[in-house]
Amino acid sequence: MRFFLTCLAADLRASLTEPGDILAQLGFFIMITALFVLAAGPESDRLALIGLAGLWMAALASMVPAFERLYEAEARSGWLDQLLVSPQPVWVFVLAKAAGYYISHAVPLLLASPLMMIWLTLPLALLPVVLASLGLGLAGLILLGALGAALTLGARRGAILAAILVLPLSVPLLIFGVLAGQAALSQAPVAPHLQLLAAAVLFLLVLMPLATGFALRTAAENG
User: Fewer C-beta neighbours within 10 Å, C or N terminus of the chain?
Assistant: First the structure.
């Protein structure tokens, strides 16, 4: 637990010291949402119908580009190599990096979501469902992104490769999340969709840290 908290605190300090990535991602999220509104047209009924999908796509698209740099500082400094030969479990480090990324990158998007919902003419009564589904979905996306970053560590055009790996795997999260919001919009049961989304995230939480640790060891050996 101490190792997890140490890694988490170090990651958060690094994010606060250089907030440029966070601000760029938040601006990208807002820009994609604005472009979606312009492309869909001014009709409020149409925007309300497809606005949930637009919100989710903007969130996913703004999160993915920064995955390439998830382990960049540790790999460049040699700290990652030291970790891999130490007795500390690598999966704990992976979980700490994912948690730090969630706090520094996903939470700002969640805080901006109410304003984006107003822009997309979505009723604010949907806010609890949107925050719950988007919070779960972004957690799953980050776990996938941690694996994608490990698999592309040191590769040229790593951001493109990570996106190619992560985005197709994130489609179930997108589907369950949008369905939960649409169910709330039509006053249908929301719980089944949120339960499926939570089950998918729990599966990733169990599998991805171990798979990512193996991928980091393989990247270090091949590097």
Answer: N
